[in-house]
Design a protein that fits this description.
The complex is a heterodimer of chains A (491) and B (414). Chain A has 491 residues and is an all-alpha fold. Chain A has helices at residues 2-28, 36-61, 69-89, 106-131, 138-144, 146-154, 163-168, 185-197, 202-227, 231-243, 245-252, 258-278, 281-295, 309-316, 319-338, 351-359, 373-382, 389-404, 407-411, 414-440, 444-448, 453-472. Classes of the chains: A mainly alpha (491), B alpha+beta (414). At the A-B interface, helix 4, helix 5, helix 6, helix 7 and helix 10 of A face helix 1, helix 5, helix 6, helix 7 and helix 10 of B.
């Protein structure tokens, strides 16, 4: 019995990844370039898991009793169809191997060494994921893992409502948690594993969090290779990403939503950077798909995809429109200041702004200046949440300024320079959102006690690291769709 | 191609001058360690570790009854033959830099059994204690330098006083003073800070400090200083040797620094796993919960479950210990709700109006984590004769189903 339960739990873990990878391969075209399969497995796991949760919602909507078999069969069927399509359309002509005989062997050894190092890390984290009961991750046992335990018993997605609704309910089928309005996807991911096992077992329910971390590493490695960096550089990127202590913690202490948002937003933003650089429509579709997924994971996930818009406008619009929009944004900010949006700057709160925000579906909030430099510095530069990521970002920013104003770059083909400008604008937009959130809104108090500041940074870490990679490791001329237009400035 | 030629070719492809690079990294490491040692030996220690002062009103009485009087904390035993225990420190601190405890407390009597009690982060289950001798008491100071167990990261420290109390204790302040450290002490301290492992806690998902609070040799700072010094030395060599500046050497230094921190983190993770293994590995779901920090609550709830129906029931969960509620937010009721799933619990009962909404056949779980110590402050009163549960003006007819050491389960009658 335990063997069957374990087997089904492993199937629940593998099926979404396999299914998503085959979907991606079927839609990618005739050839899989270097790095495609790691990317497909990483991105595929998230997309497959998103599909599994959508199927569970669909079953509930048509009042089918929730189970593992129906969505699993559907996923397996589409995976088989995709595999057939891949086989049918495969380009079987031999791919010429660009001669690697003259390459020194040390990069391969280093690559293998890093892989072993990562395997050891993932093994330790897997043991913690399986051994630990749901005790330490507060949000897991207060929010995200409460709902699936109820749904597993009821075999339907019973409603969670506010306190008053629970107190007034006569049916006994309305449930309540403090965060009753949070999105459902992360709870559905836990439910997926529990349905496969047929019972609630912490060790089985926790496994998707570990798998999400592995997917993050695979997807990151694959996207780095697709960008055109060497296998060693891509492996260094994957190691930097999976070595971040808070990424590891969220794998070991399963149950928070943040790792899923990190993977979804990170993958979306990295695919967006690919689209910026190479104008690869497939990457653009991935960026949109995963941005939609973000919105279903956490409330912040509804906001983060919007942070891609300034870079998108910079890429799509002629320069004069971009300048006009930037001017408009500065004017708008000045107007908000003038109307008293920032209470602590000597203005009263503006009723006009408050009502406009409420009409736009945004809750009224009071803008206050929080002097949070100390917790920000502590979190990024002193404590070991991120190893040396904070210092890497500072150096990368300096390098970008140097590159953008270097004469050889100014003379170089515009596409590469423009892409670097756009991806840097994306990073600056993330920085501005972070600054605005923790220095000007009530969220500032969660920076002081470290309760959410690092979890917000966590969401941005994949794209921050990928941006650093693109600055320090230039793509080789054979990379991406725009390979022909790449002008390498490296000598 | 000879091996030497291959090596040169490989070095050239990496853009790295191997021997100067290695030399710069090693000299940078020596300079970093020497720099830190000299800084602390030349007076930097007192800036990093000023005396720790706790005033009476900041302290927490965990045994006995305490109340602020003027600028002091007055503490009496709860029962005539009982003792008192009061904690000084709210935040944890590193033991080694501190060597002397000085206090201003009235009412301590040499006839009493007075002990200094502390807990180390690395071994919280093993509470350390040292008896305060008559001579210490008359000088109102205690030498901690050679006390066994005065090491690592102290998470809890206080005085336990037992015996006859002719008068209440009046605590004005307690002060922990630093002591001078030798180079050897500092190196030991560095090793301790680098090898310290926190275990998992609810804070872990929010931040990882990577070192004890206010560490002298914080890994991130040391590594950044080492990378900077080594990069300066290597860059200096390239400049003097009129070699071309290439990114590879500096990138490698940075990645080595990252790896060093990752090595420390890997060791930390392994230490955590070594603690997790005996506590949880290979156990059933129930045994894991019993082995967790709130195992006592889980055990109590296993008993409670025996009185609940198989189908999910509506349960009001109330933490009737105001002190526990204030200190631990809604931890206890939320944990109880999780343990009782899939029962339909309401873990946010804040006032008597909500309590009054309970209907016939609903269950009411009252938790008293103080185990009755503060029962006179409890909001809920049960009248066993009339079988009524009362909270302010709201009274519910109930049946007592189960009573355990940390709570009771009632069901609302028709």
């Amino acid at each position: 019995m335990a063997m069957v339960t374990g087997g089904l739990a492993v199937l629940a873990l593998l099926l979404p990844g396999l299914c998503g990878a085959l979907w991606l391969r079927a839609g990618w075209g005739h050839r899989a370039p270097p790095g495609f399969w790691p990317m497909a497995l990483g991105y595929g796991y998230l997309i497959g898991m998103m599909a599994a949760t959508l199927l569970l919602r669909l079953m509930d909507a048509v009042t089918l009793s929730l189970n593992f078999a129906i969505p699993a069969l559907f996923l397996a069927g589409t995976a088989a169809g995709s595999a057939w399509w891949i086989w049918k359309t495969a380009d079987r002509t031999a791919t010429p191997n660009p001669g690697g005989e003259d390459q020194p062997s040390w990069p391969r050894w280093l690559w293998a060494g890093l892989l072993v190092w990562l395997a050891a890390r993932l093994a330790v984290l897997a043991l913690e994921t399986v051994w630990l009961p749901t005790v330490f991750p507060w949000d897991a046992w207060s929010t995200w893992l409460v709902r699936p335990r109820v749904w597993l018993e009821a075999r339907q997605l019973l409603a969670f409502q506010d306190a008053q609704a629970w107190l007034n309910d006569a049916s006994g089928r309305v449930y309540h948690i403090e965060a009753w309005q949070y999105p459902l996807t992360v709870s559905l991911i836990a439910l997926w594993s529990a349905l496969a096992a047929g019972q609630w077992q912490d060790s089985i329910v926790h496994l998707p969090w570990w798998a999400c971390g592995v997917a993050l590493g695979l997807g990151g490695y694959g996207q780095a290779r697709l960008w055109g960096v060497t296998p060693l550089q891509a492996m260094v990127f994957a190691w930097l990403l999976l070595s971040l202590p808070l990424v590891n913690v969220h794998m070991a202490l399963a149950g928070y939503a943040d790792l899923w948002l990190t993977a979804a937003f990170g993958f979306s933003a990295i695919a967006f950077m690919h689209w910026i650089r190479w104008r690869d429509r497939r990457q653009g579709i991935l960026a949109i798909l995963l941005a939609v997924f973000c919105a279903s994971i956490k409330q912040e996930g509804m906001v983060w995809p919007a942070l891609l818009i300034p870079a998108l406008l910079l890429v799509l619009l002629p320069k004069r429109y971009v300048l006009a929009l930037a001017g408009l944004a500065v004017l708008l900010f000045g107007l908000i200041l003038g109307l008293g949006g920032l209470g602590d700057f000597g203005f009263a709160d503006s009723a006009l702004i408050a009502s406009l925000l409420q009409r736009a579906g945004i809750r009224q909030f009071h803008l206050v200046y929080w002097n949070n430099w100390q917790p920000v510095i502590d979190s990024l530069l002193i404590l070991d949440n991120w190893h040396l990521l904070g210092y890497l970002l500072l150096m990368t920013l300096l390098a970008v300024v140097g590159l953008l104003f270097r004469q050889t770059w100014i003379r170089a083909a515009g596409q590469q320079r423009r892409a670097l400008g756009a991806t840097t604008l994306l990073i600056l937009t993330l920085g501005a959102a972070f600054f605005g959130l923790f220095f000007f809104t009530q969220a500032g108090k969660w920076a002081e006690d470290f309760t959410s500041i690092n979890r917000i940074i966590l969401h941005f870490t994949p794209v921050l690291l990928f941006w650093a990679l693109t600055v320090f490791a230039m793509p080789r001329a054979s990379a991406g769709l725009g390979a022909q237009s790449v002008v390498s400035v490296r000598r | 191609m000879s091996s030497a030629t291959r090596r040169v070719a490989a070095d050239a492809s990496a853009g790295l001058s191997l021997w100067p690079f290695t030399g710069a990294a090693l000299v940078g490491a020596v300079l970093t360690v020497l720099g830190f040692l000299l800084y602390y030996l030349q007076g930097g220690l007192s800036a990093a570790y000023p005396p720790l002062l706790w005033r009476g009103e900041q302290m927490v009485v965990t045994r006995g009854q305490g109340q602020p009087v003027a600028d002091m904390l007055e503490i009496r035993p709860a029962e005539a033959d009982d003792g008192v225990f009061f904690r000084f420190a709210k935040n944890a601190f590193m033991a080694r830099p501190y060597g002397e405890l000085i206090w201003q407390i009235e009412g301590l009597d040499p006839a009493q059994d007075i002990r200094l009690i502390w807990q180390m982060q690395s071994d919280p289950g093993n509470v350390r204690q040292a008896p305060v001798q008559r001579a210490d008491l008359s000088a109102a100071r205690f030498d901690l330098r050679d006390q066994p167990g005065w090491e690592g990261y102290i998470v809890n420290i206080g005085f336990m006083v037992r015996g006859a109390f002719a008068q209440p204790l009046r605590v004005r302040q307690v002060e922990l003073r630093p002591r001078a450290l030798s180079a050897g002490d500092l190196l030991e301290q560095a090793w301790e800070e680098w090898s310290t492992s926190e275990y998992w806690s609810p804070r872990s998902a929010h931040y990882i400090s990577g070192a004890p609070y206010k560490a002298l040799f914080h890994p991130i700072i040391m590594v950044v200083v080492w990378i900077s010094l080594s990069a300066l030395l290597y860059g200096g060599w390239l400049w003097l040797a009129e070699r071309r500046f290439r990114l590879a050497g500096f990138t490698l230094l940075f990645l080595m620094g990252w790896w060093l921190l990752d090595l420390r983190w890997q060791a930390d993770l392994i230490q955590r796993s070594l603690k997790t293994y005996p506590q949880f590995a290979g156990k059933s779901e129930i045994d894991k919960q019993l082995a967790a920090d709130d195992g006592e609550l889980f055990q109590f709830l296993l008993e409670v479950r025996r009185y609940l129906p198989v189908k999910p029931a509506r349960i009001f969960i109330i933490n009737d210990d105001a002190v526990n509620r204030a200190v631990a937010r809604n931890y206890l009721v939320a944990r109880a709700r999780y343990h009782l799933l899939p029962h339909n619990s309401f873990a946010d009962v804040l006032d008597s109006a909500q309590f009054g909404k309970a209907r016939a056949n609903d269950y009411i779980l009252v938790l008293r984590p103080d185990k009755g110590l503060r029962s006179q402050q409890a909001k809920l009163q049960f009248d066993p004769r009339q079988r009524l549960l009362q909270w302010e003006s709201n009274r519910l007819p109930v049946q007592l189903l189960y009573r355990g050491i940390i709570g009771a389960l009632f069901q609302v009658r028709e």
